[in-house]
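We were asked to recover a plausible sequence for a given structure. The inputs and outputs are reproduced exactly as logged, with field labels preserved.

PROBLEM: sequence recovery
POSITIONS: 106
GIVEN STRUCTURE:
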């Protein structure tokens, strides 16, 4: 099983149904030392505004989100869902859990 931290779109039940064909159960968690940055991504019908997690020089900066336990297959589905504007990395959350997140793909 994999740990995945969502701070954005994949917290939506509607999006979860599209990606996984089910609703995920998760627990609130936080990622310290990171902040959200605005990101524009070209989609099928134009430019859409999103947020992306980026490391911060201020350790007090925190991103709130939800921690999900998912299968390796589910993680592969997220890889397909996320744009190439993002890359997947592992981080340690405030709970001490090591989880995957998607961050800016520079």
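RECOVERED SEQUENCE:
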């Amino acid at each position: 099983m994999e740990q995945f931290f969502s701070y954005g779109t994949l917290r939506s039940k509607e999006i979860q149904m599209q990606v996984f064909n089910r609703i995920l159960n998760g627990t609130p968690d936080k990622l310290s030392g990171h902040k959200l940055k605005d990101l524009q991504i070209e989609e099928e019908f134009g430019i859409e505004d999103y947020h992306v997690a980026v490391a911060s020089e201020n350790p007090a900066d925190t991103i709130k989100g939800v921690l999900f336990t998912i299968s390796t297959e589910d993680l592969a589905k997220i890889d397909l869902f996320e744009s190439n504007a993002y890359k997947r990395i592992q981080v340690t959350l405030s709970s001490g859990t090591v989880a995957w997140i998607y961050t800016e793909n520079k």
